[in-house]
Amino acid sequence: MRRLIPILSGATLLAIAAAGLVQHSNAEPVKAIPAPALDEAAGPASSEVAVLAGGCFWGVQGVFQHVQGVTSAVSGYAGGAKNTAQYETVSGGGTGHAESVRVTFDPHRISYGRILQIYFSVAHDPTELNRQGPDSGTQYRSTIFPVSQEQAKIARAYIAQLDQAQAFHAALATTIEPDRTFYPAESYHQDFLTRNPSNPYIVYNDLPKIKQLRLTFPDLYRADPVLVGSSHVATE
């Protein structure tokens, strides 16, 4: 279970860095991977949803909040029942849920395939099975929850493409779980990265992902994140 680590002051973080205690991050090095060979063409709809799980939802949400064309990124749970979609219960690892992020995007500005490219290369390490960095358990698994048959087809083809190209040091552990409902997480988990930039967990594990996004996808990076804020988070 990941615990909410107290926020350290800027002076404390500087002192830690000066002492050489923070020398690297758990985030994977920037990994340049090919774009998906199979992608969807933008139709008449101006909005589409992708639901993705890749470890702690703080970092995954934070990454997609900085992506051009994304209009909303909400932390939550997918893979289990509604009555177990609470943080304390999901953290036990027995609910079937994975910490997930519902990404709403404009398909005329960014495609589903490009969303997956960012997901695989920046947002998490897709080769880790039931863990991500310091967090372990099935609730931290790498999973795509497609909301349509077309999304499922694109995701399967892309995983096969990356494995065949040996894009990573090992085969992808990412699973595809269709027909699962997304449940928004508690309000204190929303915008966690932006609200807590000095939290040691965020500093060590997640802020490097934002830097990687900016360096790897400069054409898709937005400096100002799109936040959930205090607005009502509805289940779509």
Describe this structure as you would to a colleague.
By secondary structure, this protein is of the alpha+beta class. The chain has a single domain, classed as Peptide Methionine Sulfoxide Reductase, Chain A (2-Layer Sandwich). Helix content is 30%, strand content 16%. The protein contains seven helices and eight strands; from the N terminus they run H-E-H-E-H-E-H-E-E-E-H-E-E-H-H. The chain has helices spanning 10-18, 57-65, 87-90, 112-123, 149-164, 192-195, 200-216; strands at 48-54, 70-78, 98-105, 131-132, 135-136, 142-145, 175-176, 182-184. A six-stranded mixed β-sheet has the order 7-6-1-3-2-8. It has a two-stranded antiparallel ribbon with strand order 4-5. Helix 2 crosses helix 4 (112-123) and helix 2 runs parallel beside helix 7 (200-216). The model is unreliable at 3-28 (pLDDT under 50).
Note poorly predicted spans: 3-28
> Remind me, CATH topology?
Peptide Methionine Sulfoxide Reductase, Chain A
If classified by CATH, what would the architecture be?
2-Layer Sandwich
For the secondary structure, the number of strands is 8
What is the CATH domain class?
Alpha Beta
Distance from N terminus to C terminus (CA atoms, Å) equals 28 Å
Task: From the alpha carbons, calculate the radius of gyration and give it in angstroms.
Answer: 17 Å
Q: Tell me the overall shape.
A: globular
Q: Count of DSSP helices?
A: 7
Report the CATH superfamily: Peptide methionine sulphoxide reductase MsrA
Structural class: alpha+beta
Question: What portion of the residues fall into strands of 2 or more residues?
Answer: 15-25%
